Amino acid sequence: MRGVRPDDFCYVTPQSKRLPNTSMKTTPTPLTAAAVLATLLFATQAFAQAVPATETADQQEKEDEVVRLQDFTVTTGYRSPKAVDQIPGAIKLISSEEVTHTLLLTEDATAVLARTVPGYAPATQALNNTGETLRGRVALRLFDGISQTTPLREGSRNGTFTDMDIVSRIEVINGPSASEGIGAAGGIINYISKSPTKEGSEATLRTKFSDQGYGDSSVYRVGLNYTHKAGNNDLIFGSAFTRRGMAYDAHGRRMGMSQSGSSNDSKSHNLFIKAGHNFGENGAQRVAITLSQFRLEGLGHYVQDLGDRALGLTDSAKRGVPFGAKTEFNDFSQYAIAYTNSALLGGSLNVQGYKASQAMRFVAELGGADKQDPLIAPLGTLTDQSEIASEKRGIRSSWSRQGLFGIDGAEVNVGFDYLDETAQQLLALTGRVWVPPMNYTSKAPFVQASYTRGPVTVSGGVRHENGELQVDDYTTTYFRNRVFVSGGSLTYQATLPNAGVIVRLPQNWSVFASYSKGFTLPNVGIPLRNVNTTGQSVDGILDLQAVIVDNKEGGVSWQGKRASLSASYYRSYSELGSSLSVDPITRDFILQRRPVELKGLEFTGEFKINKEWKLNAVYSHIKGLTRTSETGPLDREMGMGNVSPDKLNLSVTWKFLGKGSLTIDREQLFKRDINVGRSGEEHTTGLTLYNLTASYPTSKWGTFSIGLENLTDKYYILPWAQIDQFQNYFAGRGRVYSVSHTITF
Known about the structure:
- By secondary structure, the chain is mostly beta strands.
């Protein structure tokens, strides 16, 4: 409900858990698409209601029914289990089956979000996730509740931090959350790891091979997950290794090596261990220890082979040793210990302590203007590459209780979070500081309450963010005039309220309305490294002020036995927003602090024709506005760096021979022309891609699967690459063939 399809929850049982295509084809407008989709969904409702109840046996009818939302709970954004049908907001739960389905097609970690979440932007098909926003804002990415995002110096590389096979589900909360702090202004994406669910030991081995028919295009993956559960003790161990070759477009040309990092020509390995022990009366208490280590590193066999945008020749790659002989990497690790007590003062206590480190090295660059220094080498001859490093440690705690003060339907959740994070960016080959060490500490109490009476649930809460940013004295690089900047500290105080109501109407309809505020910091490292005038101090830089977001949303949903639909509309506004634009000289992103208004409309729908056939639809329309200058009206539309064009994703699934499954996906991105004839003019072409996956389980030999990404072998320019930035003119992948095998023993 409320922007959610019932199919989003089917993975849980109640007990467990060349050039752009210029052919003269008529492209539907976003409003037309929305109208068509709405018509189809309402027709689906009528058809589903018209199906005679006596046409099938009771068991088959039960299998055909859409799963009830009230059977499922989420924790993300609420910090305690919360029934989905009592949450006034748009939520998307991505099942392990949906994650596995996407991995049959591609190793891209964020592709599953682009396919299934209405407001999520198209995947970049690279290691960087620049422009992969959620409803036009950078989302807070969590892994088991621990932040993988580095807002102090957002390098757009935090979408790839673990092997996706260890992920049980993904909970996506659209819009700000009162129960999460820095970075949660645009929404939350929480990747939740798997846990043992049945007694005994079990091992699952997954292997995959992908290829495009070229000598260096192969991808190999092997992963093993082992689980053990014996009484009060449980353990899960996961390890995976992947080796990726080069990707080719539909014209047989190698994809370029993104300046921000490429997953092509790379290897990755992942180690995940989680051990838990239940104790106390009735096993009410539990302690769990988690270790996660992930590293993706370039192999260094290729270098950039730049194309020519004016001639329509895309960037490519050729054999060679990268400048500086150091390859790019993503290195993420975290350690956590969690304690829960479900019988403390009549409620449930959750405490988690953690330490996490994140490091990202970018591609070495020869002659880059912003990395030159005549004291080291003649201008234009210096090679350097940057690295971002972040260290986090903190505590997350909450206590919740139902039936507070003896009032049926009342629930309260109180908590306190502490965070200490240090981040910096270095020019690694020459040992220079590009962004000085930045230390941010936060102490944030919060309280959330809800009350359900009959068909109505009202909720509200508040979080108080109390943070401090500390930066020492530093000197900028030669490119920024070697300016001395006085260090200092900035204090951030913000009170973030939220309120919502959901009304469950007759005939399985429901409506909701909500209001919430969110808090985050801008990409602090960019304004710090860009200081180029004397007399500056950290506490006097306007661009370091916090981003406070007001989010208002309303929606409606309907759920039948075989079909469902939902729609939501939202408005998100920040007086001192944070948006990206492209510097016309350096072709790199620059940070702009101006008001930002985002408005969007989302549809989702599902239709289970019978137990063999199922249809799904996802539609999203977003429009972002900001100012052209420091003053003036909100009249400049925001482009691909922040807001993606409208999209319509459709899929049909066929269950065959009782066990097999075949799915065809259709992903459509609409063309867009904004700011025509004025500053910020931008044109992106439409795009339609098809994918196919099929799986068949056997009783003895495991499950065999195939995947065909870009089924029709369509040539296209990646959406984010259609905007001229720095060395980013890339075509998308052509057809990719994949074969996978899974066996459990």
